[in-house]
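Hey everyone, long-time lurker, first post.

I ran two proteins through the pipeline my lab uses and got sequence/structure pairs for each. Pasting them in order. The first:
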Amino acid sequence: MASTTDDTSNWWFGSNYDFLNFTGLPPVEEDVRPCRRDIETLNKYIVVVIYALVFLLSVLGNSLVMLVILYNKVSRSVTDVYLLNLAIADLLFALTLPIWATSKAKGWIFGTPLCKVVSLLKEVNFYSGILLLACISVDRYLAIVHATRTLTQKRHLVKFICLGIWSLSVILSLPLFLFRQAFPLYDSRLVCYEVLGSNTAKWRMVLRILPHTFGFVLPLLVMLFCYGFTLRTLFKAHTGQKHRAMRVIFAVVLIFLLCWLPYNLVLVADTLMRTQIIKETCERRNDINKALDATEILGFLHSCLNPLIYAFIGQNFRHGLLKILVARGLVSKEFLAHHGITSYTSSSVNGPSNL
């Protein structure tokens, strides 16, 4: 271990440094063979500002998305229902961001119950997000590649599918909920951490590998399969309208992967190192911790991006929002006529939604 007695004795005075065990458990005693690492891998005040902006954008944006979809009951498509649930998941997670921001600035001061709840919401947001996107990919695959209207004609099935997605997301997130707690370090500070006794590191790997296999890898493979064949069919059809209609869906999937894939790849690297497949050193541990901090922020950022995609790419979303504003007297009908907006129609029953 790259640690010296001087390093240990300087812990209290060097407030920018902390120690980490190779077991994966935060140090509860001073005699723990520590690695010295920089706590503030990212400036905490910048992180707090980012979280505050994401919170505001996410609450506003996802609320508008839900309003537009719920307002248009008649023309609501199957994909719209999935996107509605995606907005609900992002909104629920966004409500926890003030807590995460405070913990970045002051440490964990909220106790064990809130530690469990916000950790659960974070995990449920991630799993429900990728599972909903996987369902959208299957829906588009069936509608475009096989030209079937099975799910669209039986919309009540979609409600049960969404209920199943929420249930599975909660199940995959339960281990974190059960074992997370406000854990005291040896200097009396608290961290929100999963604690499983002396075998914490080993059980952490089990709790990490199983959910990510069923809640990330498998849905990702489903999306790759479905969108691969969907794209091939669209290119063969040479219909620009279908291509345009799929832009929003592809953008949503791409943004999700750009935000969450880096974090999951870093988790894989961390898992490989903790299981000794990759040799663990203090330098590598510090690099992994920095990467986890940075990519986690990227994942949090995702909760506010989908509404921006709908606003800038989804013509129907913009039209639907303007129609609501007209109905509430906030925008004149002349304004709609001037911009050539006469009606709001969602995707056709058999066509892809472009919200």
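...and the second, right after it:
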Amino acid sequence: MTSILSATPSLSGLDPEARHVLDLGRRADAPPFEAGTPEQARRAYDEGFPDLQGEREPVASVSERTIAGPGGPLTLRFYRGQGAPATDAPGLLYLHGGGWVIGNLDSHDEICRWFANMAACVVVSPAYRLAPEHKFPAAVDDCRAVLSFMRDAAGDLGIDARRIAVAGDSAGGNLATVLSLLARGDRIPLTAQLLFYPNTDAAQTADSYRRFAEGFGLTAATMAWFRDHYVRDAGDIDDWRASPLKAESLADAAPAFVALAGHDILADEGEAYARRLEQDGVPLVLRRWPGQIHGFVSMGRHGPAPRQAVAGAVAAWRGFDPAFGKA
């Protein structure tokens, strides 16, 4: 089953909202992340993301707890959406983006709230370990542990262990794709993988790295900086847990929703991953936003596309599972 839809591009190529965000970035004239340290990049990102996010809509409840992770305590944030049942609610593991180096529980809070309410589900967002302090595969190991926790503690969390999906954007999309593949051996029957402009090939050789190398937000130089902080050495680039596009087979992975931005260095590898999913028989809904830039789903203050993308992901999730939300 494949459904491929495209949003209508603006006449100038870039949507007005995307041009506006890029203009804001140019006026700020901040140094690129690769000009400083990871800690400086985190501070700059934390100062900037509130200007992109819209208002944080209320959900039924928000709470946090700490679980034992493979590398130490892991903090999880739980969002119970309005209308989510007290028991047997759908569960969503949302993995934040940020190049495996930046990002945190607050930077993607808006998206988690949208998912919780639109899907009437429980969203779990983990503060997985970041690079370079914790190199690959630390983030993978953390997220895998959280997914297993959601399955094993489903009753306590009020979720249905048969109704769990994974989602993420950019580097979080990378982690979500990897979890979807690992879940086959872990025997966790995921209902969906919901991916926003996922990173699927750490080699960074796709042509979109040339077409959009500079001037469209995330640059090729910044992406290389992220990647080089994440991997331990060049050998990790070919490890499918870092580059899921290199996995031998994607067959039997969870049904996939893939959202891509047209003016994004990750566009081509996202397209390539979608093609692999289709070729390996994985149900797929591919949505393209030709006039958007990388990270647009985190820009709710500046237009309707972010909410539209999340709504599309929820609709796909429901379509993959006819029993969605039923006990």
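Reply from user beta_strand_b:
Welcome! Quick read of the second one: The chain has one domain: 2-320. DSSP finds ten helices and nine strands in the chain.
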